[in-house]
Write a structure and sequence with these properties.
six-stranded antiparallel beta sheet; 52% helix
Amino acid sequence: MNKELANILKNFKGFTPDMLYDDLIIIPNKNSQFNEEDFKKFIISFSLLNGTTNNINAESLRAYWEKLTRVNPDKLEKMKDNLERLFKHWIPVETNTARKIERNIKIYLSIDNSSLHAFANEFLLAALNQDLKDFSFKVNNNQSINRRDNVVIHCSDENIGTYIRIVQEVIKENPNFVFNQPHLLGIPYDNNIYCGVDYENGKVSYTENLCETIFTALNAGYSPEKVASLVNYKKEKLAPNIYALVEINKSK
């Protein structure tokens, strides 16, 4: 992974940290489309939740999915257009409870576009099935690109273990899900789950901060190999804290 990061840094021709971020996060030459049926289910889920779980649970969500064929196709298309208009890059799914919680940890999942909404639906179903009220995540809404963070789940110190457990369960129950190359800046928890720790109680993004540091180091004359090693060192320093937080509340 260090070698892959160093190679990208070696070939980087951009002029800003944002351009560096795009090079690190977007998977080149990996074009795949959203699954339309899974996307329709997700659209229904999003419209039902829309920031609240007061009137929806796992059983009722399944019931709505089963009625999907009865929904007017024009109405679904309009809902899809609205999502594209409102959320050009990301579609957020968040409960009212989650908004009141300080969340400084992110889970990054490099799920291929073709499996993206299938995962989102199953993750949402699993969270509702366990009567969780504090979930917050977002999914890529630009199918012209595959991202190494196609799904980002926002967590707190108290619930990171719960959501890692749920993600692992969903992946185990759906071995057909397609994953791409993992997040190059993320802290590895397992083969598919990578994490980041934001700063100042979530106000400063982990990846943005790290990209600015990398950009500054490259401009200061550090070699790509040296910068990649420094990134790896930083991840190794943060990893034990992530592992400890997960183990503390994973069984909850």
